[in-house]
Amino acid sequence: SENQELSLSPRMASLISIAHLAFAFGILGNIVSFLVYLAPLPTFYRIYKKKSTEGFQSIPYAVALFSSMLLLYYGFLKPNGLMLITINSIGSVMETIYLIFFLTFATKEAKEYTTKVVILFNIGAYGGIVFSTFAFVSGHPRLTLVGWICAVFSVCVFAAPLSIMVHKLRQVIRTKSVEFMPFSLSFFLTLCAIIWFFYGFLIKDYYIAMPNILGFAFGIAQMLLYSIYKSNKNQVLPEVDKFQDLTSVIVIGLSGALESSTEPDKVEDAAVDEEDGGMAPNKTSEPTGANV
Predict the structure, then answer these.
(1) Cα(217)–Cα(252) distance, rounded to whole angstroms?
(2) How far is residue 289's CA from residue 285's CA, in Å, rounded to a whole number?
(3) Distance between CA atoms of 222 and 228, rounded to whole angstroms?
(4) Mean pLDDT of the residues in the chain
(5) Does the pLDDT value for residue 273 go beyond 80?
(6) pLDDT in tens, 89-129
(7) Residue 249, C-beta contacts closer than 8 angstroms, at least 6 positions apart
(8) What is the rounded (10 degree) CA torsion for 155, 93, 288, 104?
(9) In sequence order, which residues have a C-beta less than 8 Å from that of residue 62 and are 6 or more positions away?
(10) C-alpha to C-alpha distances, 151 to 41, 91, 147, nearest whole angstrom
(11) What is the pLDDT of residues 144-172, one digit of tens each?
(12) What is the 3-state secondary structure (H, E, C) of the chain?
């Protein structure tokens, strides 16, 4: 029995060290994810100053809230899901505040549209998933099913802004200028994907780890392009099109919906048509790192 105890000691020590490492990655993931959740604050400060939502969209925040709620549900089902519960609880509260703030200053049409989206995603879809998984599935199969739903939704949300990201990458390559691609945002999103990938890998939860592979790949691609063209001083005006007023939602694994944005920070001289989301043709905005 003494020999067995001695042989088990290194194994137990290894398991303890892995648990500690996973805990550390979970804490780091919560911190970085919280910082990315704060990314829309300049946008809402701008909305508050102008008392108008201008051309900003509510869909990213509704989808982000749906993602946080779904992942929070998975965290409660999962044993030792504290790390997922904490960040997605914070995310759910913050996205709810963003939506309430948006509705306060939105036009009548925007309010009606946002209400429909919230009812569709956050009441209909979420309620349907919770009800069906509780009514027809139990035990470990329920956890597996919800995990797959979360992973598939994460990949879908990664794919949703794919055209916007490809458009941005093409702009950088075509203009040989990185003013459309702020390095700090790409860096933190890539860091977030790496942290949550290793957290999922260490706890052997591949529903967390798998979606982050895509986020890591996009982040590395953007930073490589930045390193290639960062010394180029070309200044180019942004194209006035639908990409200028869209906010892309990036879900970092099961850490919640994390927003990277094309939110204009510096368009004091721009005339924004609220109803059609367009820019007035007789004025242009000064490109900055924030309106990419």
Answers:
(1) 12
(2) 12
(3) 10
(4) 74
(5) no
(6) 999 999 999 999 999 999 999 999 999 999 998 999 999 99
(7) 60, 63, 64, 67, 157, 160, 161, 257, 258, 259
(8) 120
(9) 95, 99, 114, 117, 118, 121, 122
(10) 27, 18, 6
(11) 999 999 988 877 766 555 555 566 666 66
(12) CHHHHHHHHHHHHHHHHHHHHHHHHHHHHHHHHHHHHCCCHHHHHHHHHHCCCCCCCCHHHHHHHHHHHHHHHHHHHCCCCHHHHHHHHHHHHHHHHHHHHHHHHCCHHHHHHHHHHHHHHHHHHHHHHHHHHHHHCCCHHHHHHHHHHHHHHHHHHHHCCHHHHHHHHHHHHHHCCCCCCCHHHHHHHHHHHHHHHHHHHHCCCHHHHHHHHHHHHHHHHHHHHHHHHCCCCCCCCCCCCHHHHCEEEEECCCCCEEEEECCCCCCCCCCEECCCCEECCCCCCCCCHHHC
- Rounded to a whole number of angstroms, the CA Rg of the chain reads 21
Residue with tokens 């042989």: 7
- Return phi, psi of residue 261, to 5°: -140, 160
Strand pairing report for 278-279 and 247-251: unpaired
Taking the CB of residue 34, how many other CB atoms lie within 10 A of it? Answer: 17
pTM metric for this prediction: 0.70
CB 36 within 8 A of CB 192: yes
On the 0-12 / 13-18 / 19+ scale of CB atoms within 10 A, 113 is middle
